[in-house]
């Protein structure tokens, strides 16, 4: 087993609170009411389970990368290492979108929930002074309060990670306590008839559950805030995967219990989407619970907003440090040891988005970039597992000459990316390719086939009127997916050993890819159009600036944030330039001398 949960380090506890606080916020207090009333009904429980399963699969992949590459940037860095700079920029650009939209949407929800406690006096005053926005693209009115809420949270983060983390941890604990009150009160005062009347437990059918899962996925966005902070963890190889798994398990369980309590408490058709829990308890004359839930909602959304604004500048920092976006965004303040300019600009942009766009438009636009990032990270796990290592021998080749002959015989050449002995009959077809190449092609083809299959089922397949064409298409695509998995399984994994590794590769990462693509096909066409516009802007930046300032080929100037072990020598956030190694005569000698091997009895 990887961990003993009882032995949680302070670093692990901090990242657990960061991940839980980032996930448990606007999702539980804003999305549950809308999904339960308009999409899934009481079956919202199944929607959260489906979305949680997809998120957990992606979280496992993130956890492995967190131990493999403890560097700021999350999926951006992972993709940079595994599939190259261009795709890394695409993912990094979408991670920026995820956190910007996430921060803006939570700020807007925070403002609306706070305003509802005082009979919408802030909204009414704003409209009377500034008027309404009559463009359909924007919200109904400029939310000035949300604008300043976003800036205030950024200022708190600006004083440093350690100071703001105390507030984040406290608010997370308060929020979890309020969730416990909701669950106990909901099931105590609820009625089981609410799960069986007016359409039953699944009033919208399976389609509603899947559509609800696509929306509920927004509620789980935030676990990657743990992976983005690998350099600040004292023991990233331990704390990152442990915190990820624990945070995901706690949040998924909480969502299922809370959403079930709401639909158990009141009929799904009577839910008030904008303030589901306060309205439900107020309808039963439980006003003390109503105000308690209101306080918990503000605490939850506060931690979520902290999480988005915490991760956003770190992803931008990693991209700027690699030269893909403007270099001044990588400057670190000497006093606070965080990228102040980066944080200020990103927070101001988030505040502008919160000022003009309402929550509904923001949430629809958020999922697509996140799902794409999770898909590529899952594919990258497979690519890295089957990529040959740089060393010639497995395990520790440096100690080979010191081992007895009987133990030295157990060492063999690293076979990563090569065909397994039991699949040698494929050698005439694939033996001429470089190790790992067939695996890369197979996972790319697997992803493309999954996209075609999901789009076909979503828009052309009708289960009530199955034709012979449907049978041919589904059989061909299904066979294609199985063949891709067969080809990947036919190859050896490399000898790299990590503190945490995703089990059952390539099955689990492949399932993650399928789940993410299924959810992506449930997003509407307008979301895809907006996503296309965002990508055009990003690609212009990449081709006009990033390509000319990239450090991809400059291995002597690649910089990273200092790890905790180096923090005692120089300030956190200082740039650590790797120096060019001076060549010596020993470089011309072979790594393992054949004569030495013979003298030690290795050949016999």
3D architecture notes:
The structure is a single chain. By secondary structure, the protein is mainly alpha-helical. Helices cover 64% and strands 0% of the residues. The protein contains 23 helices and no strands. The chain has helices spanning 10-23, 26-40, 44-68, 75-83, 85-116, 121-130, 144-158, 161-189, 205-220, 224-227, 236-265, 276-283, 287-321, 340-356, 359-385, 405-408, 427-430, 437-459, 468-489, 507-520, 525-549, 564-567, 594-599. Helix 3 (44-68) packs across helix 15 (359-385) and helix 4 (75-83) runs antiparallel to helix 5 (85-116). The longest helix has 35 residues, at 287-321. The radius of gyration is 26 Å and the shape is globular.
Q: Secondary structure elements and their pairing?
A:
Blueprint: H1 10-23, H2 26-40, H3 44-68, H4 75-83, H5 85-116, H6 121-130, H7 144-158, H8 161-189, H9 205-220, H10 224-227, H11 236-265, H12 276-283, H13 287-321, H14 340-356, H15 359-385, H16 405-408, H17 427-430, H18 437-459, H19 468-489, H20 507-520, H21 525-549, H22 564-567, H23 594-599
Helix pairs in contact: 1-8, 1-11, 1-13, 2-9, 2-11, 3-9, 3-11, 3-15, 3-20, 4-5, 4-15, 5-7, 5-13, 5-14, 5-15, 5-21, 7-13, 7-14, 8-11, 8-13, 9-15, 12-13, 13-14, 15-20, 15-21, 18-19, 18-20
Main location: membrane
Domain Cationic amino acid transporter C-terminal: 500-550
Subcellular location: Membrane
